[in-house]
Amino acid sequence: MVKTIISIASLVIAGAVFFMYTEPTYGKTQALQKEIDQRNLALDKATELKKRQETLLAQYNAFNPDAIDRLHKLLPDHVDNVRLILDLDRLASRFGMAVQNVVISRSLSETSEKTVIGSIASGKQGYDSLTLKFSTHGTYSNFMKFMESLESSLRIVDLASLYLLPDAQSNSSTARPSSVIGGGSKTASGQIQTQETPYRYDITLRTYWLK
Question: What is the largest CA-CA distance in the chain?
């Protein structure tokens, strides 16, 4: 009888120990082991990414620095409005022209995010753009040289609009109709001296950069 009671008591104590200590402890151990496995996996991924980073950095350093600089000018990773205006003005000054009345619009992503469809579309694009409006004055031949230089420059720009008007700053523009690009005057020897009529050009450009 005593042995039976002891056996039953032992079973009860063993069951109590199992349900009150062993099972919760085992569950915590399993949870800790799962967390350890996840952290080990994350460490393996971090090591793999570190090796990949070192490989890409070595490949990047192998490029010609001049080529990288040209690539950044071709399609930069940000927009520098002041630098863009200065570059345009420097280019125009080579042909006796100056950039004036500059107006920079908001970027394409900012304007398209006003609608749900626009925000989704802009989020899928890997680039952004803005428009830059300005005016300049000069002869038609100098203006064409300016546009050719702009076309051959590294910076990607699209000509969105162009308006040609008589130059109100020039007295000669009031003496000739706006349809006349060039004119002439006789010198003392009777030879015809060509003198081009200056015009005002209202230009809108669109430029791009990587997001």
Answer: 147
The region that residue 131 occupies, defined by phi over 0 for left and psi between -120 and 50 for alpha, beta otherwise, is: beta
Q: At residue 124, what is the residue type?
A: K
Buried/exposed 54-84: b ≥16 CB within 10 Å, e otherwise: eeeeeeeeeeeeeeeeeeeeeebeebeeeeb
Cα–Cα distances (Å) from 132 to 71, 101, 162, 205, in that order, read 22, 10, 12, 5
pLDDT tens column, 161-176: 999 998 776 544 333 3
Predicted confidence (pLDDT) per residue in 117-149, tens digit: 444 555 566 788 889 999 999 999 999 999 999
pTM of the full structure: 0.54
Q: Which helix (H) or strand (E) holds 75?
A: none
Token couple for 171: 């007295």
List the structure tokens of 141: 């031949």
Going from N- to C-terminal start, the domains of the chain cover 72-210
Phi-psi region of 190 (alpha: psi -120 to 50; beta: other; left: phi over 0): left
Whether the CB-CB separation of 163 and 128 falls below 8 Å is answered with: no
Q: Tell me the three state secondary structure of residue 171.
A: coil
Cα 7 from Cα 77, distance rounded (Å):
79
pLDDT at 8: 67
Can you read off the two tokens belonging to residue 163? Answer: 């308006």
Judge: domain 72-210, CATH 3.40.50.300.
no
Average pLDDT, the chain: 76
